[in-house]
Amino acid sequence: MLWPFNHFRKPRLTPAGTIEAIYGMIVTQAREPIFYRDLGVPDTVNGRFDLLLLHLWLLLRRLRTVAQGGTELAQALFDRFCEDMDDNLREMGVGDQTVPKRMRAFGEAFYGRVQAYDQACDQATETGAEALAQAICKNILNGTGIDQARRLAAYAVAADAELGQTGDAALLRGVFRFPAPLREDET
Q1: Cα-Cα-Cα-Cα dihedral sign, residues 187, 45, 59, 26
Q2: Which of 55, 65, 140, 177 has its CA at 20 to 30 Å from residue 31's CA atom?
Q3: Model confidence, pTM
């Protein structure tokens, strides 16, 4: 039963160490060499950013289904992502006055990709995989390499399914793994 004044209670937040561990898992997975070597993701700042967004989206998509604690963890991970982007911009020498403009561009890129990937995944299974491949081709592979985009989409579908099989408690504690990226002989 929900009490009428539940909104006065402080939400139970995931410990900062768990957020760092989960965000670290996302970053580590996005840096797997196979994505750049075999799946055509450009090994550039933009390519790494786009692959990080793909993995963050996969986890945030799954967290939407977690009834208790999912929203809080999703927000904490998004906040950590924003902090990371801000830190990276400053390390690259972007000036204080330019950082907010670049952060706004990151936000627009994030929300645009999330919308495109969600729409693709919400389509029927077979056409959804092709729609996801098209979105990945456009957003990650700069409009070229549809075969590689299909392999990357197959990986994303497998990761989405594996995260879907992970229990809510395991997700909230950061006790899960992304699947290994698919090698060419596995597609």
Answers
A1: positive
A2: 65
A3: 0.85
